[in-house]
Design a protein that fits this description.
single chain, alpha/beta, D-Maltodextrin-Binding Protein, domain 2, 2 domains, 10-stranded mixed sheet, 10 strands, about 20% strand, globular, binds aspartic acid
């Protein structure tokens, strides 16, 4: 009898292991999960991580903490997660810079996208070209003429080398065939504060952070970077940059969720299930749509679809960055 029971217990353990599930994984998460945001508080990455964290908390039934680790265009916070224990308790919320940094930086403080397991794409949003409230130009056309008359008189804030705002600003300068002095910050949060205060002049920033400031009249808005005009009331009157003469101009910023590579498969599955459920959360969808963000519902919410998308983006940006010849140290 004793032997039979022992055999049953062993068979049960073997079956559980066969399915990749140990007792520890079955209990995951039994302590708070931390989402690392590689930019300062108050920016789009921070906002997206906080909204996602709230939705994940409900699905995982566990506290979700957001920690801001800004600096070096998001690469410092990314390295923090690459080096974290691969147990599912330290995750990364990272935007398009995840795919551009490996080509942009001559030396990264982590190996690259292979240091991570893709958990699913979260969302995508266009950017907006915005300016300090006292800028004399009222439309994109006026702004363009104002810059052309004296390119040195305006500067452009961004969230560091490799940030989405820097990429958008670089593409804008290339399309306008001009050079504008750039002012780097540790994230959009502090950059936006200075833009509203008039310490810097322009920024190419995601709708996520721009919409509330446009609605509040705290910044001037000139254009959206999406291929089509946006229907959101705050953005509806804005032209696209493409229709304003910058042929084919289109920038969309996406965010994904990542775990360190070697995180056990059952933990990754639980996190992906929680992410998919979180992206269906009506609160999250409502908050996102109000800021011009589209929550992902296609195959890119699955780890394989997300990885395929990231690899495509890495290859696309590698070509763009190599052609531009501008690298960061
Ligand atoms: N939006 C920023 C960027 O330009 C980063 C942030 O979310 O603060 O990359």
């Amino acid at each position: 009898m004793k032997n039979i029971r022992r055999r049953w217990v062993l068979t049960g353990v073997a079956m559980a292991l066969g399915a990749g599930m140990t007792a520890a994984h079955a209990e995951f998460p039994d302590k708070p999960v931390t989402l690392i945001v590689p930019f300062a508080a108050g920016g789009p990455s921070d906002k997206i991580a906080r909204d996602l964290g709230e939705a994940l908390r409900k699905k995982l039934n566990q506290t979700v903490i957001v920690e801001n680790v800004g600096g070096a265009g998001g690469t410092l916070g990314t390295a923090r997660v690459a080096k974290a224990p691969p147990d599912g308790y330290t995750l990364l919320v990272r935007h398009i810079g995840f795919a551009t940094a490996p080509s942009l930086y001559r030396k990264l403080p982590y190996k690259g996208v292979d240091d991570f397991a893709c958990l699913g794409l979260i969302n995508e949003a266009p950017s907006t070209l915005i300016g300090k409230p006292t800028l004399p130009a009222r439309t994109f056309d006026e702004l363009r003429k104002y810059i052309a008359a004296d390119p040195g008189r305006l500067n452009l804030a961004h969230a560091g080398v490799g940030s989405a705002s820097q990429l958008c600003g670089l593409m804008l300068q290339a399309a306008m065939k001009t050079t504008i002095t750039s002012v780097p910050y540790k994230g959009t949060g502090p950059a936006m504060t200075d833009l509203m205060g008039g310490q810097v002049d322009l920024m190419c920033e995601q709708a996520t952070n721009a919409v509330p400031q446009i609605e509040g009249g705290k910044v001037k808005a000139y254009a959206v970077t999406s291929a089509q005009r946006m229907t959101l009331p705050a953005l509806a009157n804005l032209p696209t940059l493409a229709e304003s003469g910058l042929k084919d101009f289109s920038v969309t910023v996406w965010h994904g969720l990542y775990a360190p590579k070697d995180t056990p498969a059952p933990v990754l599955r639980k996190l992906n299930d929680a992410l998919k459920a979180a992206l269906k959360d009506p609160d999250l969808i409502k908050r996102s749509e109000a800021l011009g963000i589209t929550v992902i519902t296609d195959g890119r919410v699955e780890p394989a679809g997300h990885r395929h998308f990231v690899e495509t983006e890495v290859a696309r940006w590698k070509k763009v960055i190599e052609a531009s010849g501008s690298y960061a140290d």
